[in-house]
Specification:
Blueprint lengths: L12 H13 L6 H22 L1 H12 L7 H13 L8 H30 L1 H6 L1 H32 L7 H12 L8 H27 L9 H35 L8 H17 L3 H26 L12
Helix pairs in contact: 2-5, 2-12, 3-4, 3-12, 5-7, 7-8, 7-9, 9-10, 10-11, 10-12
Length: 328
């Protein structure tokens, strides 16, 4: 009596064997926590490395924003002035909170973006999401950035205080502790409104421009056959343009964030009234102080982020995300 083939059998032993070999050689696509934790780790590493590496540029940019009368010779002149007045070590002021803060923020930002994008696709359906992908990119990045900023804000407040007042504390731990002890936990979130005002439009512009530029390129380059090096170059180029757009959109809020974290508010003065006062003092021109340094910084780090993010995702086998871009 012959044995019936298994339910998944095609009825042909040779074809079944070929399918088993193909399945064994094909990498299993991840999903759920296994997938999104890898997205988060890749995002954490790419943001920590790029922001940490550009700490000297950020120091000069912040000095230009906070004291434009002294630092009035552009980015190169700012570098020279900081080194001449305080020594080369001053260019690494705030490195600790920068690396730690953006490690956390990157995990929430990139991991959250992929998660919320998938949720939008699940809710709308693939076809509707694809036809309205710009709205999906914008909504997903905005939601991800909101949660990322909750994690980032205390460390960003510490960084700005260390950069604006070099004698305030010796580093991340001492600076964080001093703010908590002398001003209370609320002081870490005095800049939460400005940081949302800065980071949410920044991230929305960053992801939507990256996605659109990459989509346009992949309409001319077959992603399935493109080499790893070619894909990394595409990520770099798309990220560079995305960084320029994000920097321009978010520059006024970035300047206000630097100002509000520089000093404590007056007794009884709320965050909103402080923001209004700072905006009036700055004006449109003042709000774009340091834009040259920030264009260089944000363009460079965003290009690096997307390149590193893409490479780490491949390294970790995080290839299970759903794409809604139309590349054909």
């Amino acid at each position: 009596m012959s044995t019936a083939p298994p339910p998944t059998s095609s009825g042909s032993s040779k074809l079944d064997a070929a399918k088993q070999v193909a399945a064994a050689n094909s990498p299993e696509k991840l999903s759920g926590l296994a997938l999104y934790s890898r997205f988060a780790l890749a995002g954490a590493v790419c943001c920590s490395v790029t922001h940490g590496g550009l700490t000297p540029v950020d120091v000069v940019k912040t000095r230009i924003q906070l004291d434009p009368l002294t630092y009035n010779n552009g980015m190169i002149g700012g570098f020279r002035k900081v080194v001449a007045n305080e020594g080369a070590g001053a260019l690494l002021t705030g490195f600790g909170p920068t690396a730690a803060g953006y490690f956390l923020q990157g995990a929430f930002k990139f991991g959250g973006y992929e998660l919320f994008k998938q949720q939008c696709i699940n809710y709308l359906g693939y076809e509707t999401a694809s036809n309205n992908r710009t709205a999906v990119y914008l909504a997903s990045s905005a939601m991800a950035e909101f949660f990322a900023d909750i994690a980032l804000c205390p460390l960003e407040a510490t960084r700005i205080r260390l950069v604006s007042e070099p004698t305030f504390a010796s580093g991340l731990i001492s600076g964080f502790g001093k703010i908590a002890k002398t001003e209370g936990i609320g002081a870490f979130y005095s800049g939460f409104g400005p940081i949302l005002f800065k980071q949410v439009p920044y991230t929305m512009a960053k992801f939507v421009v990256y996605e659109k530029v990459a989509e346009a390129i992949y309409k001319r380059v077959d992603k399935r056959t493109a080499s790893d090096g070619t894909q990394t170059l595409i990520n770099l180029g798309s990220g560079l343009l995305a960084g320029f757009a994000a920097a321009i959109v978010s520059q006024p809020a970035d300047t206000m964030l630097s100002k509000i974290n520089k000093t404590k508010g007056l007794p009884g003065e709320g965050t909103t009234s402080r923001l209004i006062k700072i905006a009036r003092e700055l004006g449109l021109r003042g709000s774009y102080a340091g834009i040259g340094a920030r264009l260089f910084m944000v363009g460079t780090l965003t290009a690096g982020q997307f390149a590193i993010y893409g490479d780490i995702k491949k390294l970790l086998g995080a290839t299970g995300g759903v794409e809604i871009a139309k590349t054909t």
